[in-house]
Structures are given as structure tokens and as C-alpha cells.
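stage 2 :: seqdesign
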């Protein structure tokens, strides 16, 4: 009992520290990517926080899988470095005695990873795609921000407002540049402007006290018009209907469709909790550290093993989606290979004289 409690406590503390570090890295990566898109005008600044939340929820099962693997690996490696393993082995506790405490710690996390991969990730992907569709469906007036040049959704019009709307709903010093289909350039500058909606729900931009310049770029042919009131109807964009991505489809829908692409996506979702469990067990033999040798060699080998395993699952997922493998073969083969590797590693650590070193 003391042995199991000590391991459970150390696994939990290590996992908490690793999860915080990995989650911070994930948030930073998503934040940098979204800030770049916001700076380029592809994502409005007010949508960054919501998209960060959806992105973090989508990647949460992967983060938990890596957290579980690293927590078991680091905890057991520390026991080797501090010679605690020697004491346990001298007391008659074999390496296989670590399987039960690791499973007790890993199974709750594996259940969370499975629920996240099957339900949370597709839900967050669907909500993120739906939110982006609503953003793309907004008319150009919602893209205007004070002191910032903003491009329209069609990339043919540029807006600039020096002073935002006050209590009266008016903006000051409005600049609009538009390229027509005939290749002409239209520039409108006005002192004030506001929005108006008529009885039928149509929206209009009303500009007051300004000028309009029409002409062909590169030629001296320009026409200048002054106006006291200039009114333009804002085109209401229909809601965007993008084709649903496989990652955003619910698991029940994938099971009902049953085609190659759906089975490939389903394989990836099922493979994530299975790989989390096998990686936790694989960390037991991979945690071996020789105090006389380099202390970081096992971490490099473990990292390489994780990358190979996760990439192998992704490759089989792609092959199943392309129809090159059956679903059962693609689901079982990479995990069976890892199971065989796990058995070989345990045998190597437990056998006094391995069969490959035995003399004839």
C-alpha cells in the first residue's frame, strides 16, 4: 500500500506540472497563429478569445495523452536516478509490479481522453467552423474599426474611420476606396457618416459633406463630385455554407455513414485513447536510466518512440480513409506492433540472460 500510494502521489504531482506546461505551450501557439490572422484582417480581434477556447478544447485529448506518457516516464526515471529502483528490486519487487499502479493512475485519464476524442474534439471543431462561418457572413460595416484600414470580404474595398461612433451613432472622417469591375478606382472621403435601416430591414451607409473621385489608375481622366448626402445600400451576405469537415462530424454520424473517409476519421478517434494506455505502459521499461551513463538518453528514445507511434496511427488513418487498408487492420496493426515492442522491452529488463545472448 505504501508503495502504491507513493507512486500515485508522485504521478499526480508530475502530471499536474506537465499538463500546465503543455497547456501553456498550446495556448501560446494558438494565440500566436490567431494574432497573425487578426493582424492580417482574416479574423476580427474580438473573435480571438473564442477561437482560442475552441482550439484548446480540440487539442485537449492529445495534450492529456502526452501528459500521461511524460508523467509516468519522468517519475520512474527519477526513481532510477535516485537509486530507489535498486532498493525496490532488492526488496523483491519486480518491474512488473509497476504495471498495476500505472494502470490505476492511467485509466481515469484514458477515459477522459476517449470521451474527448469521440465527443469533445468534434464538438469544438464544429463550433469553431460555425463561428468562423458567422464571421465570414457579416457585412462590411461590421469590419470597420476606428483608426484602422480594413479590407472588405471581397478584397475590393478598403475602409478607414478616424473617429468611431459616439452617442449619436455618427463616425467622423470616413475614407472608402473601391475598385470596380471595370478596373476603375472610386475614392470617397466625407466628414461624417452613419448607418440607417429602412422599414424593410435593408441597411444603408449614409455619408455627409464629402467628395467622390472616379478615374482610371495611371491616367489623368478623373471625375470629382461633391455631395451633401451620399447613400449606399449595404449588401447583405448570405450565410456561408461550407462543406462539413470530417473532424467536425459527430461520432454517431461517422458510424452511420460508414464510407472510407468516415472510417479513417473514426480510426483516429478510437486510436487516441488506446495509444494513451499503451504509451503509459510503454513508459515503464523506457524509464530505465543507467546512473553511470547519460541521464537524457532514455528521454530522447521515449520522445522518438512517441513520435513514431503517433505518426504511425496517422498514416494508417490516412490509408484507411484512402481505401488502402480495411478498418480492422488499420485499427489493430499499429497497436499490436506496440504491444509486441512492449513485451520485448519488459523481457529485456526482466531476463537475466536474454535468449539472443545465450551461447549454443
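stage 2 :: out
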Amino acid at each position: 500500500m505504501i508503495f502504491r500510494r507513493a507512486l500515485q502521489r508522485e504521478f499526480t504531482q508530475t502530471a499536474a506540472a506537465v499538463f500546465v506546461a503543455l497547456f501553456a505551450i498550446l495556448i501560446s501557439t494558438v494565440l500566436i497563429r490567431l494574432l497573425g490572422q487578426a493582424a492580417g484582417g482574416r479574423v476580427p480581434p474580438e473573435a480571438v478569445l473564442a477561437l482560442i477556447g475552441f482550439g484548446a478544447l480540440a487539442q485537449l485529448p492529445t495534450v492529456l495523452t502526452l501528459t500521461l506518457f511524460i508523467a509516468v516516464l519522468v517519475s520512474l526515471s527519477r526513481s532510477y536516478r535516485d537509486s530507489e529502483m535498486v532498493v525496490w528490486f532488492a526488496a523483491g519487487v519486480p518491474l512488473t509490479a509497476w504495471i498495476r499502479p500505472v494502470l490505476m493512475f492511467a485509466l481515469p485519464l484514458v477515459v477522459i481522453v476517449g470521451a474527448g476524442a469521440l465527443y469533445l474534439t468534434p464538438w469544438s471543431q464544429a463550433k469553431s467552423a460555425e463561428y468562423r462561418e458567422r464571421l465570414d457572413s457579416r457585412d462590411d460595416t461590421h469590419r470597420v474599426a476606428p483608426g484602422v484600414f480594413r479590407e472588405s470580404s471581397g478584397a475590393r474595398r478598403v475602409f478607414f474611420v478616424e473617429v468611431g461612433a459616439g452617442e449619436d451613432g455618427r463616425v467622423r472622417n470616413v475614407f472608402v476606396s473601391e475598385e470596380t469591375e471595370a478596373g476603375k478606382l472610386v475614392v470617397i472621403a466625407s466628414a461624417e457618416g452613419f448607418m440607417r435601416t429602412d422599414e424593410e430591414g435593408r441597411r444603408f451607409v449614409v455619408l455627409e459633406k464629402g467628395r467622390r473621385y472616379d478615374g482610371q489608375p495611371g491616367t489623368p481622366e478623373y471625375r470629382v463630385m461633391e455631395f451633401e448626402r451620399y447613400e449606399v445600400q449595404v449588401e447583405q451576405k448570405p450565410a456561408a455554407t461550407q462543406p462539413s469537415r470530417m473532424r467536425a462530424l459527430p461520432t454517431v454520424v461517422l458510424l452511420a455513414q460508414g464510407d472510407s473517409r468516415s472510417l479513417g476519421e473514426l480510426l483516429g478517434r478510437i486510436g487516441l485513447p488506446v495509444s494513451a494506455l499503451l504509451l503509459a505502459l510503454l513508459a515503464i521499461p523506457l524509464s530505465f536510466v543507467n546512473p553511470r551513463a547519460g541521464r537524457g538518453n532514455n528521454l530522447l528514445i521515449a520522445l522518438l518512440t512517441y513520435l513514431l507511434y503517433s505518426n504511425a496511427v496517422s498514416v494508417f488513418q490516412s490509408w484507411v480513409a484512402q481505401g488502402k487498408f480495411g478498418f480492422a487492420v488499420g485499427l489493430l496493426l499499429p497497436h499490436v506492433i506496440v504491444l509486441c515492442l512492449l513485451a520485448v522491452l519488459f523481457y529485456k529488463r526482466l531476463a537475466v540472460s536474454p535468449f539472443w545472448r545465450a551461447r549454443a
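stage 3 :: structure notes
- Helices lie at 2-39, 48-81, 84-90, 99-136, 251-257, 260-286, 297-321, 327-350.
- Confidence is low (pLDDT under 50) at residues 239-243.
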